[in-house]
Amino acid sequence: MAYPYDAIPEGYEGMHWEDDSADEQDAELSLNDLLEHCLLPTVHEASIQFGTVMMWCLIFRASASFLPLPAIPVHLLSATCGLAALTSMFGEAVLYFPALATVGYAALGVARFCTRWGYRCCGPVSAFACVVFIISSFSGCFHFSELAFSDPSVWHMVRGAQMLVVMKIVSVGFDVDSDEKAHLPNASQYYGYILHVGCVVFGPWISFKDYLTVLTRPSINFIWVVSVMRSGALAMFCFAMSSCVTIWTSTWGTWKWWLAYNDAFAYRMSHYFISFMSEATVMASGIGCHGEGKTWSFPVAVPSKIELPRSLVQVVVYWNIPMHVWLKEYVFRPSQRFGLGGFPAILLTYVASAMLHGLNGQLWAVLLSLGLSTYVEHILREKLSSIYDACIRARPCKEKCSHHKTFFSAVTLVWNTLFFILAISSLAYLGVMFDSDPKLQEQGYDLTHTFAKWLYLDFTGHWIALSMYVVYKLS
């Protein structure tokens, strides 16, 4: 999935103002330049890409709603529109996705056959097959048309959509394993789900059960239209903030932590752009109906919980809600059932997340650092909550909790404010890795880039995590 900064016109990413103390007229001209040379072109390009995918979502929605189609043609239409949307985004690389889906289905079929001998292994086998296929593709063992996936820019482009396909395949496998009466979806159901137009490009991950709601043909009404338009408008706003406004705010100061926060904020805004866009496309395709069409929603990210975080744990949960659910359901809980508990299960979950995000050293470093920081913060705040009998856990207490010192207690406010500041600094420290260099975004980031950024910030985030662990051991 291309990073949103790619839409910035060539040469504009280096634009700056010669005189930071310019008068009001110069500042106004600079803002006009920002509007003319960045905001309008980038939003226009994003709207074209977004509009193409949305067009296929609406074609599917209208066809499934108004035509008297039985289930099998609906599933085939879902896959066909999904492939059309993928082609509009990735060109000839589209062949990669049905190939991956087919490998996954073959692995599921073999694993399902093994259940005759009492082995329920569809989930692990499908995951292993996907990993082997991805590594083989990345190393250039498989070629589709004249496309070699050893090209980092191509790999970086398809990585996001590939992650969604893998998540769906693995979830089908574990769902079949968890229910003795469950049957493997037939071919039309499977490909309709894996390549569903509403979430195959931008996401989000949806369960097979969620996908089957398209067969209920929820009504097309005013609430649905408003919900889709709202998410689309929020996506464009976040894209404008990410691609253009943060270029302007980067001139507000030269303090390295301000620049780090600004770069990280731009990255978070680009994430919100994808999140709101995925909300819009999945609802446009007919998923997210509640109460017989009275409400439509499919929340992916909650920016308010991330920009004003109570803890890093809260950031992880609300960063990508569907993915958090997937990791909890198909990695964390199964690992606990196999005897892993506490930190090993959490570490395995972050390793799984890193693998899903691709063979990228920087992502591994960031995600594993995030896992370490969230775990240390969690155990420290649990202990402090017990010592002070206060509501200072990583997750907010329920309305009527047993703590003596509640939210407005002085002790509670002091500790929660301190952890809020630490969370904000961690957001800057971890998010600064994903800067706006177009060449780096096209090919991906390496570990050298990561450590250079962290060295510039004196490895502060890791020192904070170590300090919290020392306080935990000494308290």
From TrEMBL:
Q: Which GO terms describe its molecular function?
A: palmitoleoyltransferase activity; Wnt-protein binding
Read off the InterPro entries from this record.
LPLAT_7/PORCN-like, MBOAT_fam
Q: Which GO terms describe its biological process?
A: lipid modification; Wnt protein secretion; Wnt signaling pathway
TM segment ranges: 64-87, 93-113, 125-145, 190-208, 220-249, 338-356, 407-434, 454-472
Q: Which GO terms describe its cellular component?
A: endoplasmic reticulum; membrane
Q: How does it sit in the bilayer?
A: Multi-pass membrane protein
EC numbers: 2.3.1.250
Ordered alphabetically, the record's keywords are: Acyltransferase, Membrane, Transferase, Transmembrane, Transmembrane helix, Wnt signaling pathway
Swiss-Prot/TrEMBL catalytic activity: [Wnt protein]-L-serine + (9Z)-hexadecenoyl-CoA = [Wnt protein]-O-(9Z)-hexadecenoyl-L-serine + CoA
Q: What class of enzyme is it?
A: transferase
> Where does this protein reside within or beyond the cell?
Membrane
Q: Report the Pfam families cross-referenced here.
A: MBOAT
| Similarity section | Belongs to the membrane-bound acyltransferase family. Porcupine subfamily.
Protein known as? Protein-serine O-palmitoleoyltransferase porcupine
Originating species: Notodromas monacha
